[in-house]
Amino acid sequence: MRDRLPFLALLLFGALPQDSAAQTAPPQAQAVQVENYHLGPREKLFIRIGQWDPVSQAYTAWPDVSGEYWVGADGIVSIPMAGPVQAAGLTVSDLSTAILTQLQTRIGGTGEIDASVEIIEYRPVYVMGEVQTPGAVAYLPGMNVIEAIGLAGGFRRAETAFLQGDRSALASLGAHEVLRLDLMRQLAKMARLQAELDSRPTIPAIEDLANDPAAPALLAREMDIKDARDAEVASQLSQIAGLETLLAAEIDRLGKQITLRGEQLELAQADLANTSDLVERGLTTASRRMDLQSLVADQEVRLLELETARLTAEQRVNEAGARRLDILNSRKRDILDALAVAEGEVAALRARMQTEAALYAEAISSGEGFVTTEGLAAPVIELTRKGASGLTRAEVDRAEALQPGDVVEVRLPLGEAGPGGRAITQSKVSPFAPNSASVSPAAPAAPLPEGHD
């Protein structure tokens, strides 16, 4: 035991040397620089858009457009007024320029609109294998392999460990099932939002939910939500249509009144002309002419009031049409925002399901009992990265810089020569017979749970 203490101390504090003979060229790892970093799917951004007013010398933010956005699985971020913008493969500076270009194209900006993009959540790094808490680790710029392992709890403790493979497998399977149900709910929600966006009367069938027994209930619930939302918008539009009908009838009635009032005015004017002629010839009194002049003035005032009332009614018709457009545009904007959020949730859920499926398979293969290790070789760290040419996998050292989405797998080799030439042995011993030296065969690899993507 005293012979192993120095070696185990080095292992626990992360100071073991790597076996240089087993190294291969790393997959071109470099530290991510924010200004030169190219965005990818499943990343969370904060986009701030505003405009400088040269007259008031003040900057005005656009709160309805600024906010948090997810880059979808297709690499697109949907922004109100600007529309879908391709974000994957761009830097934050390039994305800001692309947003401004689309805004100015769509709304005719004056060139004083400003857009800034910040990355507030990168794709996580996944740490698997011989660490204390395998799973997703939040990525930060400049992170290297040993920092990610530290966030995952560090290397698994050597010497003697108690494996609870079946229990861990059950926990991973349960977590996987919870994530799968969340994924189904998000997919059903996305289908409902797309149906609302396309103005479809029903939600179309979803291929991912075709054979799942819970799918009909989820789709029925989303259909109820869609019906309620459609009914709300239909009620608002119906009220506007009713108002337009009433205003149209009022305009028609005012038009008829204006016609009649015009005819009365013409008759009064003709009568006034005749009376004025008679007054000039001394055949009638001047008071008669004054009465007719008052009547003509009164008819002209009433005609002007009717024309003003008709113009007011026509203006209200235009306002009702503008209100209808505002309701429809606001609904479309809300649907697009909800779709962008749902796409981000789906991408995150799929990634977490992959992690839980991998943990499930690892737990099933580990079995149960005590594992004794008389000396461990240096940890082997493998990095898997997705690049333009596909997945690359290579052994790396602890200082290797990571990129968002990398998968780090840590192995503690057994069955090799340990420090001082000591043989490394592994034995699985039943917890009810601690003195037994029989070696249990390794458990067969288990298939991944259904629903793993």
| % residues in beta strands | 15-25%
Category by helix and strand content: alpha+beta
Distance between the termini: 45 Å
Weakly predicted, low-confidence segments: 1-31, 369-375, 415-453
Biggest beta sheet attributes: 5 strands, mixed
Number of helices: 6
Overall pLDDT: 77
Secondary structure: helix percent: 40-55%
Using only C-alpha atoms, the radius of gyration works out to 38 Å
Based on DSSP secondary structure assignment, what is the total number of beta strands?
14
Note the overall shape. elongated
H-E string = HEEEEEHEEEHEHHHEEEEE
How are the strands of the largest sheet arranged? Answer: 8-7-13-11-12
Describe what this molecule looks like in 3D.
- It is elongated and about 135 Å long.
- The protein has helices spanning 5-12, 92-107, 145-151, 165-197, 215-280, 286-366; strands spanning 44-53, 58-61, 67-70, 76-79, 83-86, 113-121, 125-129, 135-137, 160-164, 368-373, 380-387, 390-395, 407-411, 426-429.
- The strands form four sheets. A five-stranded mixed sheet has the order 8-7-13-11-12. Strands 1, 2, 3 and 6 form a four-stranded antiparallel sheet that branches. Strands 9-10-14 form a three-stranded antiparallel sheet.
- The longest helix is centred in the C-terminal third of the chain and has 81 residues, at 286-366.
- The chain has six helices and 14 strands.
- The protein has 453 residues and is an alpha+beta fold.
- A hairpin with a 2-residue loop joins strand 11 (380-387) and strand 12 (390-395).
